[in-house]
Amino acid sequence: MAQVTEVIHPLLKHHVTILRDCRTPPWEFRQQVRRIAALLASAATADLQVVSKPIQTPLAPMVGVALAGRIALVPILRAGLGLVEPLQDMLPHAAVWHLGMYRDEETATPVEYYCKLPPDHPADVAFILDPMLATGGSIAMAAEALARWGCPDVRVLSIIAAQPGIDRLCHEFPSLKIFVAAIDPELNDAKFIVPGLGDAGDRIFNTLPE
Ligand code: PRP
Question: 107 an active-site residue?
């Protein structure tokens, strides 16, 4: 069974509410995504491996720590791009491998149009970045690609997830670790999360229909 963490924090609830509000303009929506991503990153990285690192402060020698292992950020285009910079701020040495997918409007299933994952040398830990987890199809496709790559520790950072999508991923990817800011109960007939926040990619990139 996948490990699902709905991160509970008053700052998250505050910022997710602004994110959901249909009156929030794209410039503010992007700011909110960054704030929420930073809070989620704190939870999703809490058990990363570290190694001892001796250093010298201006006053004395001491033994600190450094992150161990190769870390990858795997944003799903387009909306996942909004999560990259806040994660890179926390994990400046992480590699970023882009996956391009869109959801077919008729079938609500993902269509892959770009995969930048290399053939070998998998990361030790990979974070799939996508603000929305609706049916779970896009993240399932990304998780399959990371499994083929050989990544042993795959984590998902999503802002809003729908319960049916979470249930699907738990069933299909028992070793996945999923971190979300909110779990909404259902999908509508068009497979949009309800209450959700609409189309995250359009709201980030200001491409909503006039
Ligand atoms: C949205 C969203 C996720 C996906 C979620 O992408 O950003 O990637 O749908 O749906 P799923 O869980 O049912 O797969 P969209 O197809 O709108 O592409 P975009 O990010 O380019 O706007």
Answer: yes
Domain contains 102: yes
CA of 81 to the centre of ligand 1 (A): 12
Count of the separate structural domains present in the chain: 1
pTM of the model: 0.96
Which of the four pLDDT bands, split at 50, 70 and 90, describes residue 1? confident
Give yes or no for residue 51 having a pLDDT over 80: yes
Is residue 24 annotated as part of the catalytic site, yes or no? no
* Domain of residue 167, CATH code: 3.40.50.2020
Residue 210 lies in a domain: no
Cα–ligand 1 centroid distance for 200 (angstroms)? 8
- Can you tell me which residue has the tokens 């896009």? 138
User: What is the number of other CB atoms lying within 10 angstroms of the CB of residue 92?
Assistant: 8
Alpha-carbon distances, residue 113 vs 85, 100, 159 (angstroms): 22, 5, 23
Residue 57 falls within a domain, yes or no? no
Q: Whose CA is nearest to atom 10 of ligand 1?
A: 134
56, part of any domain: no
How far out from the chain centre does Cα 96 lie? 12
Tokens 């795959």, residue? 154
Q: What is the pLDDT of residues 145-188, one digit of tens each?
A: 999 999 999 999 999 999 999 999 999 999 999 999 999 999 99
Q: What is the domain range of residue 164?
A: 3-51+62-205
